[in-house]
Every structure is written in C-alpha cells, then in structure tokens.
Design a protein that fits this description.
Blueprint: E1 11-17, H1 21-30, E2 34-40, H2 48-63, E3 71-75, E4 92-96, H3 101-106, H4 109-116, E5 124-125, H5 127-131, E6 137-140, E7 143-146, H6 150-159, H7 161-171, E8 182-187, H8 196-206, E9 210-215, H9 219-226, E10 234-237, E11 241-245, E12 253-257
Parallel strand pairs: 1-2, 1-3, 3-4, 5-8, 8-9
Antiparallel strand pairs: 4-10, 6-7, 11-12
Helix pairs in contact: 1-9, 6-7
C-alpha cells in the first residue's frame, strides 16, 4: 500500500467513464482497498459542460454519502475540458494527469506524447470504445466517418456542429500525399483475447486509414485503485480546491483554491 495511506484498508468512491469498465473492475478485484464504483457513458465529453455538471453532482453525492469515503477517484483525464472546474468538497479527489483516456490506456502521458504529439487528433480505439458505443466510428450520410475525439468535441462545445466542422477542416486540410491517415488501436493484454483489434483494423482499413497497433498498460488504472498516487502522475485535489487545466505535456492540470464554475 501507499505509505501515505498507511496500512489501513481504505474506502474509495470511483467515478469513471465506462470505456474503462473491464479494466476498472479487474483492478478493483485485486485492490487491497474497498471501492464503490459508478460509470458514465462513453462519449459524454462531446458535451463537456453537461458532463462536468454530471461529474460534480456525482462528486457531491459521494462527498455527502453515509459511507464516509476516504477519497473520491476520478478515472478521467481533462477530457475535452469536462473535468476542468470540478470542485472537491470535504473529501479529496484524485485524478490522473492525462489529457484524455488515450494516455490512461497507454499507461503514461510520456507514451501519449511519444505516439500522438505530432497529431493529437489521431483517431484511436480500444476494447471499451468498441463495446460501449463505437464512439470513433459513426455513420453519416451512409458513409462511416472517423471522429477525432476531444479536440473536435471542444470545438462543437464552443461553436456548434456546423462551425466546428468548418474550423476542423480549415485546420486539418487534406494531406498533399495519398498516404492514409493513421487509426490507432490500443490493445491491453487483459482484453486482447476478445479480438477487438481485428474488428477495429477492418473498420479503419475500410476507411483508407493506416492501422496502427499499440500495446496498452493498465498501470495508471491500477495505481489509482491501489492508492498509489505519485504526484507526478496523479493530481490530488484537497477539500476546497478545484481542478484547473494547464494544457501542457507534463503538469496537464493543477489544483487551485476557489469556487468552481460548476457552482457558479
């Protein structure tokens, strides 16, 4: 156990996106701590203000719960700014220092930067995405179109769908070469036997995308559940503080004093 927690078995409340459902339950089963879990639907960060309000309500409910949790665990990243502004009440809130679920699935923000820094909008998938909504593939006008995650979602949140599409197309013109864009599948050893990589590859190649296979790692998910909160990898939000985005490659988010926009 984390020395900061001592040897006492802790009681945690986990609030997570269900893209991590399989991985989260696997880590919960092995954790030395007691963890009550609830999940939101994948893709809710497309409307970041709505997801932020939902998460704040869940944090508040856990904070006021008779179970008297030792800490509230958020299995999210910044996720299209959905977690920026979230307020810790009387319980600590712990969240990985990650831009989005891609970094969490890869096991570190360093691996995320290694594979996505040249194009953070590269579409990606995992077992959870294929099982919980197929979020990065959708049908528009009869044609499958790859969606590009949190960056695109933030434009939709600010400007609406039509303007977001215009802005996105302006910033990402068609490549001068005929080489297809990448589509990345993050394959965790715990779910590799399900065969989702093959399904994703077929979908990506049908779209003319170059399929890229990356090995995932549940180390961040496991550390969150085990109470091993290295401050280099996890933000610990103390009571009365809120989450603020930094938007760099290292700190990513920080805790600030004050009332969040969720309360305003």
């Amino acid at each position: 156990m984390n020395k900061a927690l001592g040897d006492r078995r802790m009681l945690f409340k986990l609030i997570a996106c269900n893209v991590f459902l399989r991985e989260a339950y696997g880590c919960i089963a092995q954790s030395p701590h007691i963890i009550d879990a609830e999940f939101t639907e994948v893709g809710e960060h497309v409307h970041s203000a709505t997801l932020r309000a939902s998460l704040q309500a869940r944090i508040d409910a856990a904070d006021d719960n008779a179970r008297n949790y030792d800490a509230i665990l958020l299995l999210y990243g910044l996720c299209g700014n959905a977690t920026a502004g979230l307020q810790a009440r009387t319980k600590r809130v712990i969240i990985p220092r990650a831009h989005d679920c891609c970094a969490i699935l890869l096991g570190s923000r360093e691996r995320f930067r290694e594979h996505f820094s040249d194009d953070p909008s590269t579409p990606f998938g995992s077992a959870g995405y294929l099982e919980r909504g197929n979020y990065f593939m959708r049908v528009e006008g009869g044609d499958c179109t790859l969606l590009y995650g949190d960056a695109y979602a933030s434009y939709v949140e600010q400007y609406g769908e039509e303007a977001a599409r215009y802005i996105w197309d302006s910033l990402h013109p068609p490549a001068a070469t005929s080489a297809p864009a990448r589509a990345v599948f993050i394959d965790l050893p715990q779910t590799a036997h399900l065969g989702h990589a093959q399904t994703f590859r077929a979908q990506a190649e049908a779209e003319g995308k170059a399929y890229v296979h990356l090995d995932g790692d549940i180390r961040l998910i496991r550390a969150l559940m085990w109470g091993e909160w290295n401050p280099e990898e996890f933000l610990i939000v103390e009571p009365g503080q809120r989450i603020a985005g930094v938007y760099d490659w290292n700190e990513i988010m920080r805790a600030e004093d004050g009332i969040s926009s969720a309360e305003a």
